[in-house]
Amino acid sequence: MRVLVVEDEQLLADAVATGLRREAMAVDVVYDGAAATERVDLNDYDVVVLDRDLPLVHGDDVCRYIVRLGKETRVLMLTASGDVSDRVEGLEIGADDYLPKPFAFRELIARVRALGRRATAPLPPVLERSGIRLDPNRREVFRGERQVHLAPKEFAVLEVLMRSAGVVVSAEQLLEKAWDENTDPFTNVVRVTVMTLRRKLGEPPVITTVPGAGYRI
């Protein structure tokens, strides 16, 4: 899942991003509304965590802009105000969910994951394919009865492949979904991560390389 965090309180923004990355999400961070509109133009995000009171371009206008783009991006709006009228107004301009500050980080994670599921075709909460069982909420992977312990990026790559349900996923698509925009697109990080993932999942291999196209399970 790829997430954009838009928050002008830099310490809070960076803390949220760090926590989401620990949950195997690819996260970009910006600190004002103008930068947010630039990012949503350039990248496809599953979820935007959007502070309402932003400099340069107000969060409401960023939300309206995302809606006008017509993408499947979901918006979780944050605000320091817990007033009901503010929450209603935020939802009416196009936000998909609303979370007042201060918030419990576990709740933020749960809401981001729920919105991420809504940004894609409906899938069961636990993904199963080729003897692999992946639970995104618990961040657990099993092959048969054996639990497989994965690093966050390995988990993210496996989740993308499982969600594609047999469709070939290119290295570029994996890079976009599992890494943030600071990753050098010319590195071999995708190939190395897939190799490590194959080794951890064990024999017989379940990840197939399609020459010139990408990978699939």
Number of helical stretches of at least 4 residues: 8
- The CATH architecture of the largest domain can be given as 3-Layer(aba) Sandwich
For the record, the CATH class of the largest domain is Alpha Beta
The 3D shape can be described as elongated
Pfam families: Response_reg, Trans_reg_C
Organism: Streptomyces hoynatensis
Keywords: DNA-binding, Phosphoprotein
GO molecular function, one term: phosphorelay response regulator activity
What is the structure about, briefly put?
By secondary structure, the chain is α/β, with parallel strands linked by helices. Helix content is 41%, strand content 21%. Residues 124-217 bind DNA.
Give a verbal description of the structure.
The protein is of the alpha/beta class and 217 residues long. The protein folds into two domains: 2-119, Response regulator (Rossmann fold); 127-216, Arc Repressor Mutant, subunit A (Orthogonal Bundle), CATH 1.10.10.10. The protein has helices spanning 10-22, 33-42, 59-69, 84-92, 105-118, 152-163, 171-178, 189-201, and strands spanning 2-6, 26-30, 47-51, 74-79, 97-100, 127-129, 132-135, 140-143, 146-148, 208-210, 214-216. It has a five-stranded parallel β-sheet, sandwiched between helices. Strands 6-7-8-9 form a four-stranded antiparallel β-sheet, with helices on one face. Helix 2 (33-42) packs parallel to helix 3 and helix 6 (152-163) crosses helix 8. The radius of gyration is 18 Å and the shape is elongated. The relative contact order is 0.12. The model has no long low-confidence stretch (mean pLDDT 88). The modification 4-aspartylphosphate is found at residue 51. Keywords: DNA-binding, Phosphoprotein. One of its GO terms (biological process) is regulation of DNA-templated transcription. Residues 2-116 form the Response regulatory domain.
